[in-house]
Amino acid sequence: MPIKSLLVPAFCALSIAFTLPVQAQISGTEDDPVVARVGEDVIRQSEVLALAQTLPAQQQAQVALLFPALIEQLIDLKLVGEAGRAAGLADDADVRKRVTQAEDQIISQAYIIREIDVLVTDEKVQAEYETFVKENPPQKEVHARHILVKEEAEAKTLIVELDGGADFEALAKEHSTGPSGPQGGDLGFFGEGQMVPEFSQAAFAMDVGQYSKEPVQTQFGWHIIKVEESRLAAQPSFEEMEQDLRTELSRGAYQEIVARLRDGADIEVIAPPAKEAAPAGEETAPAGGGTSQ
Fold first, then answer.
1. Distance (Å, rounded) from C-alpha 155 to C-alpha 213?
2. Are 221 and 177 in contact (CB under 8 A)?
3. What is 86-97 written as a DSSP string?
4. How far is Cα of residue 93 from the mean position of the Cα atoms in its chain?
5. Which domains does the chain have, with CATH numbers?
6. How far, CA to CA in Å, does 94 sit from each of 81, 89, 101, 126, 282?
7. Mean pLDDT by 10 residues, the chain (293 residues)
8. Cα–Cα dist 289/293, whole Å
9. What are the respective helix, strand and coil percentages of the chain, to the nearest 5?
């Protein structure tokens, strides 16, 4: 697909580019060089990057490749804007109304971003992580193997062989019908509740090195389970959780900001009156008093 065709939606979405957060705009001439001129107007790098942010994520990843085409789109915008001004659209009532709406949106967004930056500090994010760690202690995990067979009698026969010193892994490779059979029945580590209830309950009731002395039945068949290891699951690191924690705190901060602004504000919701429903069993007569045929 031609690059320019990818950018047609971006041209239509340019109003979004001008409502991006203030942080997305690069200021100053050294860090924000001029990349094109249209008459007396200039186009800076920050405008191109802002436009790039309106593209789908896949295209944003190719911003270096798309950069020249994005400049061309902005040149087109400048020319179209000049033509619109020459046609007197800057004084058009509908255009001025939309400009005011866009200005309100930009100001609102900038205000919210700055207020959230004040409320959601690095210290608060760290404290939220520490609270999470305290309220969500590490959970036990077990590393287990199993042998899965169709009949209880076969499972009991295999348990007798294990009692006689047979190797669990070798028996699993030879007899297990489960997908883990070729790996000696190895299921790796899992937490309580991650397996079907009957299997999970049996595995977590066993000691390390122990195998089930009675077959365990599940919807898949009959299992012989052996617990190889036990450990506490690692908790997610701060780096892994930081963005989610910051997002959640930002949501709360936004609600706090809006609630503060609403408190004491003179607000009146003027809604159209609800249409009265006709009583059950009655039909509204057609206009003019006619009857249906």
1. 10
2. yes
3. HTTGGG-HHHHH
4. 40
5. 3-91 (no CATH), 140-232 (3.10.50.40)
6. 16, 9, 11, 48, 45
7. 43 40 43 92 92 88 90 94 94 94 94 96 97 94 97 97 97 96 97 95 96 96 98 94 96 95 91 64 45 38
8. 13
9. 50, 15, 35
